[in-house]
Amino acid sequence: MPTALIITTAGTNCDRELARAFALAGATPEFVHVNALRRDLSIMDRAALIGLPGGFSYGDAIAAGRVQAQLLRAVYPAFRAAIERGVPIIAPCNGFQVAVQLGLLPGPDAGMPWPDEPLEPVAALAQNAQASFVDRWARIEVPADTRCVWTRGLRFTHDTNLLPVAHGEGRFVVASAERLRQLRDGGQVAVTYHADDNPNGSMDSIAGICDASGLVFGLMPHPERYTRWTQHPWWTRLEPSSREHEPPGLRMFRQAVAHAAGVEVAT
């Protein structure tokens, strides 16, 4: 079973759900603290998958995910090496906020190598348009042309195309209309909110993006909280045909674990 390394620190509180999702999908979760990684970058070498969990790292001081992103700058070379050897990385909610500030998302342009130093952020998760915390389920869709290894090819029924959201700073914005077009045209939009169900005012209803390789996946909804049907908000009323497949969250993790089966790791 491939090892899924879950990076924890003060304030992360979705690490157990992330571990459960990886385990259900066929991976072996392993927790590692940010400080341990900063002391020994080689820890990352044994990972076939990596997770940056949600929560409120360091109390979201300054801005959501800012402190953790600064601490992880020292770990950036290990992230770069992991991506170059094909390791899928997922960053839900607070993890997404960290990933964009660390420069992991949207990452370098297609065909360009990862630089030696972290890229400057060109995207952000800003305060929700309604200026308040949102905690509910939102309808989602997967673009047909996405290159994201976690979501590509996935289709859901009208009753099951949901993911839970819980954040105060989740409005996805990018630096320019040109950058937004590049994300769309390059297949880097990994998941969107339904046109009539954008919970935070994100540009183009974008709920999550990937890097140009399709390996690094950040999103504000929580797929790790939707890995069994009893988590669905009205699961007892679902038609049996709607449950012919596994829940959307678990399907995302299964795709990544299947991809990770061929990733080389240190022994």
* Mean pLDDT value: 95
Global shape: globular
- The number of helical elements comes to 7
Secondary-structure element series: EHEHEHHEHEEEEHEEEH
Question: Uncertain runs with pLDDT below 50, 5 residues or more?
Answer: none
Span between N and C termini? 14 Å
> What is the percentage of strand-forming residues?
15-25%
Strand arrangement within the widest β-sheet reads 2-1-3-4-11-10-9-6-7
Number of DSSP strands?
11
Instruction: Characterize the quaternary organization of these chains.
Output: single chain
Give the structure's gist in a few sentences.
It is built from seven helices and eleven strands. It is α/β, with parallel strands linked by helices and 267 residues long. It starts with a strand and ends in a 7-residue tail after the last helix.
Q: What are the main properties of this structure?
A:
single chain, 267 residues, alpha/beta, 9-stranded mixed sheet, two-stranded antiparallel ribbon, 7 helices, 11 strands, 24% helix
Task: List the topology elements.
Elements: E1 3-8, H1 15-24, E2 28-33, H2 34-39, E3 49-51, H3 66-72, H4 76-84, E4 89-92, H5 94-102, E5 123-126, E6 134-141, E7 162-167, E8 171-174, H6 177-185, E9 189-193, E10 206-210, E11 216-219, H7 248-260
Parallel strand pairs: 1-2, 1-3, 3-4, 4-11
Antiparallel strand pairs: 5-8, 6-7, 6-9, 9-10, 10-11
Kindly describe this structure.
This protein has 267 residues and is an alpha/beta fold. It contains 7 helices and 11 strands. The strands form 2 sheets. A 9-stranded mixed beta sheet has the order 2-1-3-4-11-10-9-6-7, sandwiched between helices. The two termini are 14 Å apart.
